[in-house]
Design a protein that fits this description.
mainly alpha; Chloroperoxidase; three-stranded antiparallel beta sheet; two-stranded antiparallel ribbon; 13 helices; 4% strand; globular; binds protoporphyrin IX containing FE
Length: 397
């Protein structure tokens, strides 16, 4: 009898453990939950990030025969990032929307000529807070089942949709999480984007339109979202993402920072390269993004902060990094975002978190590395990154 009840308790626990992770990322799971999950995963040691495309920076056709656009199949995932959505729809990323950091880095370099440093920063920041550090996979949208595994695996893949760890408020074409859907293309917001482009860019999204629309969206969130949050890292990403379309969504042969509404629709709504689209010159994208982000911020400088539970209550947050504090961005992200998600990792999880933290740090080589889980299993990576170009120019690191 005792044997039976022990068995029963164990089975009940097992069911609980198995059921729990099905639609959840690892972040925030208890030690016991993690222990139950670990044996059921293909644990992967994260490989180092791919290097920059040293001799592949040329302007070239990327909407090519090898990368045809395909409509979504059942189970394919897309999310808040129009760049990654497009890369998945053209097969630069796995079309199901589940990828490793290395696949993401290669895809953004090959498809859009994103700088290696930016690519590393974005890919490792997001695997740490949105992905599964054990399987080294993350979804570019919602949490999802792992398909095609033999034997079938439980779905323990986090996603970029997760709010307030990387994804944040005041997006250009996605609503704030407070209003429900923080990741789908929002036609009303895109119409605003187009109106600003008409008013300030003569029909194109250009630097002036970007400056005005970024500021407008912040004011709109202040006026409409009682829980509006605009602190690091979102404080940084909002300005950089406003710059991305000027650099990456403009055909590399044109490269004048003038994005037509036709092409903007193709990327933001349809997740598709325009016909004959050529990527940008990769030797220039880092400077262009940094300069544009700086200009967008400088046109209407804001202090990091947020509303206090009511609309129009925006208050400066002195604890958040501002745009002159690149190293604080890094340190606070590790200590205040990653560590609360994984307070006491053990075993393979700790090793993989440390490895990913080391890769992330490689995007901040002039800062002092922090080791929240001790120094074993991952150190800095000797890359000279774009963030440092930005830091030298703007940020005191
Ligand atoms: C390197 C890996 C990348 C990651 C992990 C990533 C992740 C994300 C995430 C999580 C967001 C949502 C942020 C938010 O609005 O709350 C976002 C937005 C955005 N991303 Fe990416 N991204 C990456 C690369 C790119 C590339 C290469 C492009 C352009 C080609 C791009 C263009 C954008 C734009 C324009 C937005 C803003 C969307 C909007 O405000 O409506 N991203 N990205």
């Amino acid at each position: 009898m005792a044997k039976f009840s022990t068995l029963f308790v164990f089975s009940a626990l097992a069911i609980q453990v198995i059921a729990l992770p099905y639609y959840r990322s690892l972040a925030g799971l208890s030690e016991r939950e993690l222990e139950g999950i670990l044996p059921r995963l293909n644990v992967v040691t994260p490989p180092p990030p791919p290097p920059g495309p040293s001799n592949h920076t040329c302007v070239k056709l990327v909407n090519d025969a090898a990368h045809p656009f395909m409509t979504l199949q059942d189970g394919d995932i897309r999310g808040p990032c129009p760049g990654l959505n497009t890369l998945a729809s053209h097969g630069y990323l796995p079309r199901n929307g589940i990828a490793t950091p290395a696949q993401i880095i290669n895809a953004v370099q090959d498809g859009f000529s994103m700088d290696n440093g930016f690519a590393i920063l974005l890919a490792y920041a997001t695997i740490l807070v949105d992905g599964n550090p054990l399987t080294n996979l993350m979804s570019i949208g919602g949490k999802s089942p792992l398909t095609g595994m033999d034997p079938p695996q439980p779905a323990i893949v986090g996603g970029l949709d997760t709010h307030a760890v990387f994804e944040g408020d005041t997006s250009m074409t996605r609503a704030d999480s407070f209003f429900g859907d923080n990741h789908s293309f929002n036609q009303t917001l895109f119409d605003q984007f187009a109106n600003f482009s008409n008013q300030f860019g003569d029909g194109n999204y250009n630097l002036t339109a970007a400056e005005e629309y970024r500021f407008f969206r912040i004011q709109q969130s202040i006026a409409e979202n009682p829980q509006f949050s605009f602190i690091s890292p979102r404080f940084f990403t909002a300005y950089f993402e406003s710059a991305f379309p000027l650099v990456f969504f403009v055909d590399g042969r044109q490269a004048d920072g003038q994005l037509s509404m036709e092409n903007a629709t193709s990327f933001f709504r349809d997740m598709q390269f325009p016909d004959d689209f050529h990527r940008a010159d990769g030797s220039k994208t880092a400077d262009l993004v940094n300069n544009a982000a700086t200009a967008i911020f400088s046109a209407h400088p804001m202090q990091p902060g947020g509303n206090n539970g009511t609309v129009n209550s925006y208050t400066f947050d002195p604890n958040s990094a501002n745009l002159t504090e690149g190293c604080k961005l890094y340190t606070d992200f590790v200590n205040n975002v990653v560590v609360p998600l994984y307070p006491t990792p053990q075993g393979a999880l700790k090793v993989n978190l440390n490895a990913n933290l080391g890769f992330l740090f490689s995007a901040f080589p002039n800062c002092t590395q922090v080791f929240p889980y001790g120094q074993r299993g991952g150190t800095g990576w000797p890359f000279v990154s774009v963030i440092m170009d930005f830091c030298v120019g703007r940020i005191k690191c």
